[in-house]
Amino acid sequence: MKEIMSESGNSPRNPARRAQFVESFAAVLSEAGFPPMPARVFAALLASDSCALTAAELSGSLRASPAAISGAVRYLMQINLASRERKPGSRRDLYRVHNDVWYETMARRDRVLFRCEQSLREGIVLLGGASGGGVRLVETLAFFEFMQYELRTLLERWRERKKRINFAAVKRSSHERTSRRFRA
């Protein structure tokens, strides 16, 4: 990644470019249904060098009130996209996004799908599989079972792929190949 940054002339420490990314990525998350301020805070944490910032740092970099930051980090912690830690030697809390945040989020989705499947099975028994609602529940259950199986397989494939990739040493050509492949 360092090669990508230096070759394109973008300094990873450039606050304007970081802010541009934060707002851009937050807008994408918001379009997907994420509340705007938690999206901005999440993007800021994700883009920080340490993946951890204090509430004051978030407030300053996002030009947002402490109350807005507090509500956003509370939301992120409730959905397990951020955690709170004590800053060493300080009374200030650090809010952190962990490196495996997406993996962990998807792994939790697997557990949610399992609970949904259980509830759908109960609903099918209660409504009967041949009723109008029951038929929809049967189809929904089949979809969730499919998604759960595919998600487990996908997570396994990701763990294997992650073992083979040294993210600290990703070369530009590798990044470009991956980007082209996912755009196609």
Tell me about this structure.
This protein has 184 residues and is mainly α. The protein has two domains: 2-96, Arc Repressor Mutant, subunit A (Orthogonal Bundle), CATH 1.10.10.10; 101-183. 70% of the residues lie in helices and 6% in strands. A three-stranded antiparallel β-sheet has the order 1-3-2. The longest helix is centred in the last third of the chain and has 33 residues, at 132-164. The model is unreliable at 1-9 and 171-175 (pLDDT under 50).
Provide the descriptors you would attach to this structure in a database record.
single chain, Arc Repressor Mutant, subunit A, 184 residues, 8 helices, 6% strand, 3-stranded antiparallel beta sheet, mainly alpha, 2 domains, disordered N terminus
Topology:
Layout: H1 2-8, H2 15-31, H3 36-47, E1 52-54, H4 55-62, H5 66-78, E2 83-86, E3 93-96, H6 101-127, H7 132-164, H8 172-183
Antiparallel strand pairs: 1-3, 2-3
Helix pairs in contact: 2-3, 3-5, 4-5, 6-7
Count of strand segments: 3
Quickly give the CATH architecture of the largest domain: Orthogonal Bundle
CATH H-tier superfamily of the largest domain:
Winged helix-like DNA-binding domain superfamily/Winged helix DNA-binding domain
Uncertain regions spanning at least 5 consecutive residues: 1-9, 171-175
Total tally of structural domains: 2
Structure annotation, total helices: 8
Secondary structure: helix percent? over 70%
Gap from first CA to last CA: 22 Å
| Relative strand content | 5-15%
Structural class: mainly alpha
- H/E series: HHHEHHEEHHH
Report the principal-axis shape: elongated
Strand count, sense and closure of the main sheet? 3 strands, antiparallel
